[in-house]
Amino acid sequence: MNESEQQVAVVTGATGGIGRWIALGLARAGHHVVMIARDPARGNAAAAWIGLRVPSSSIEVQLADLRSMAATQRAGQEIAARHPRVALLVTMRVCSPRVGRSRPKATSVCWQ
Ligand SMILES: NC(=O)c1ccc[n+]([C@@H]2O[C@H](COP(=O)([O-])OP(=O)(O)OC[C@H]3O[C@@H](n4cnc5c(N)ncnc54)[C@H](OP(=O)(O)O)[C@@H]3O)[C@@H](O)[C@H]2O)c1
Question: Which InterPro entries match (predicted)?
Answer without folding.
Answer: NAD(P)-bd_dom_sf (IPR036291), SDR_fam (IPR002347)
